[in-house]
């Protein structure tokens, strides 16, 4: 069966995710079989695409819609000396292969040195390609980022990448929906990152399995697009298939005038449709979760999965108090790996490094937040601080505001764009045993370098930590008598 | 993907169970950028032992692998199937496969048939008595024949049909190509395109 119109409406009240799904149905699956969904935008990077292109070549198939496909180099790219050949042979090979494939199959590629090069999930939105009501896929689990625009955005595997390249569709089994409602007003110094870390700590790293999450409520509406992207980005860390925020004026204001945003009559038609992309009032979610924004504090992880987190003002939990035997064992293992003793106040934990970057927190808003705290300060002695913009364009925009100078005067490194120390596929890695406050999304064992220890934090906490040398919030700086310029963060005058 | 109806060839009795995908092909081979040429990675650690069964000349050119229970557990890497295929295997027989491995095998045209444990033991005994003996896996009839023993194997109907028709995932979807083209015709003009950049 096929649908008649892309914007089909039915009488049954539906959630945002269901509406986007229905409008992309190419063929409905027979009982138990997946539906075939059309894919509006396919993002490609060097790590998960080589075998997909090779598969096309083997079968003699072209890319069906090069005009709905775009590629960038991010995971392996160096963040220093980007004009030099890449030293590591595997990294170099993956990048060279992407370049050859893009050429052969006629795909637009933003290579190292290009102003639109950067982390794939930063590039799509900044070009205005990511927009409400579309389907987005990429061979990368953090594709969920794009859901911030009200798009249905999913990470896929390499064989699915090949499938989308060849057919521009994907067979997908229907999902369940979960509403995550965050009402209230965030306290000064509390950010989108703290919301999502608190959500994951609450529902667990498997809590979202099988679900598309929809983030709702006044605290979400109040966030910038950059903040919403931070939240949707980490949906996958709760095990979810995707995360979404309904589009609104904030979304439209962000999009308007971007290189690929619709114009003129197209813009008007789009907005008219986008305005229908809200969960109907009486639509039912399969699950609902509530969070009180007023109660949230800066959040930080103590363990080796993103669900092992506490408020920064708390202490390392005692595994003995965990009832579930598996979770208790996991906590014990995590504390051993992290070299932490139960009961240690989080704020007494010293770090060796601070990483400000990744597709979670490397956009202009994030860099503004970070630099608003470190401005005029000096980093703690012995702490390595690396600031890596999400894309070459973000880097330029930040430089136009003088943020690079603030970073350098602080004693931190201002790098070129890429995934960098988020996963250490390039030379940016932690040494064994090194401890890092990181604005990225995964604190898995060895993620940032073999034996490295990661604490996930917001850009504000990363900044305060870089100044004090121990896990800290901007409020701690004020308590130390350090004045912080808080134009972008609302921390001003905070005494908590 | 080629159609599979009958596989006849040298059968290898691999007396091991719980063969995970890391043993089938270690992670270092995941750094490659191609979809073929993984034969050197197959059972990489075990093949360092000159006595390992696949190193024995009688089994040169083997096409059928007869292995113990829980084959293909662990990481979901499709490379495990590619390595078996590139080495020359067209069918794997086991009392039980890991789900993801079985799914990957069906998608790549590798026949994965389930035969009960006792029969696998009998097959092993037969094959070990005459190393290098040929066997036949008949997908049409759903039987495996080793020497004088013919036994039924299990494979789900859908996967069997796909193998018999030689349909990979993409070919299956392209049977709906008209529906895709129709969908594209009504796709609104505000939706994004990546070319050309303004
Ligand atoms: S920044 Fe990290 S999480 Fe994001 S795409 Fe790169 S490696 Fe993946």
TrEMBL record, chain A:
Pathway this chain belongs to: Amino-acid biosynthesis; L-leucine biosynthesis; L-leucine from 3-methyl-2-oxobutanoate: step 2/4
Role description: Catalyzes the isomerization between 2-isopropylmalate and 3-isopropylmalate, via the formation of 2-isopropylmaleate.
Domain Aconitase/3-isopropylmalate dehydratase large subunit alpha/beta/alpha: 18-469
Natural source organism: Microcella pacifica
Required cofactor names: [4Fe-4S] cluster
EC number(s) from the headed UniProt entry: 4.2.1.33
Swiss-Prot/TrEMBL catalytic activity: (2R,3S)-3-isopropylmalate = (2S)-2-isopropylmalate
Coiled coil (UniProt feature): none
Similarity comment text for this entry: Belongs to the aconitase/IPM isomerase family. LeuC type 1 subfamily.
PROSITE patterns for this protein: ACONITASE_2
Pfam families for this protein: Aconitase
Complex and partners: Heterodimer of LeuC and LeuD.
Residues annotated as binding [4Fe-4S] cluster: 359, 419, 422
Protein name in the entry: 3-isopropylmalate dehydratase large subunit
GO MF, one annotated term: 4 iron, 4 sulfur cluster binding
Cofactor binding mode and count: Binds 1 [4Fe-4S] cluster per subunit.
Record-linked Gene3D superfamilies: Aconitase, domain 3 (3.30.499.10)
Lineage: Bacteria, Bacillati, Actinomycetota, Actinomycetes, Micrococcales
Keywords associated with the record: 4Fe-4S, Amino-acid biosynthesis, Branched-chain amino acid biosynthesis, Iron, Iron-sulfur, Leucine biosynthesis, Lyase, Metal-binding
One Gene Ontology biological process: L-leucine biosynthetic process
TrEMBL record, chain B:
Pfam families noted in UniProt: Aconitase_C
Domain Aconitase A/isopropylmalate dehydratase small subunit swivel: 1-112
Protein name as it appears in the record: 3-isopropylmalate dehydratase small subunit
A biological process from GO: L-leucine biosynthetic process
Pathway: Amino-acid biosynthesis; L-leucine biosynthesis; L-leucine from 3-methyl-2-oxobutanoate: step 2/4
EC category name: lyase
Subunit (UniProt): Heterodimer of LeuC and LeuD.
GO molecular function: 3-isopropylmalate dehydratase activity
GO cellular component assignments: 3-isopropylmalate dehydratase complex
Signal peptide: none
Keywords on record: Amino-acid biosynthesis, Branched-chain amino acid biosynthesis, Leucine biosynthesis, Lyase
Domain of life: Bacteria
The enzyme's E.C. designation: 4.2.1.33
UniProt-listed SUPFAM superfamilies: LeuD/IlvD-like
Function, in words: Catalyzes the isomerization between 2-isopropylmalate and 3-isopropylmalate, via the formation of 2-isopropylmaleate.
Family: Belongs to the LeuD family. LeuD type 1 subfamily.
Catalytic activity: (2R,3S)-3-isopropylmalate = (2S)-2-isopropylmalate
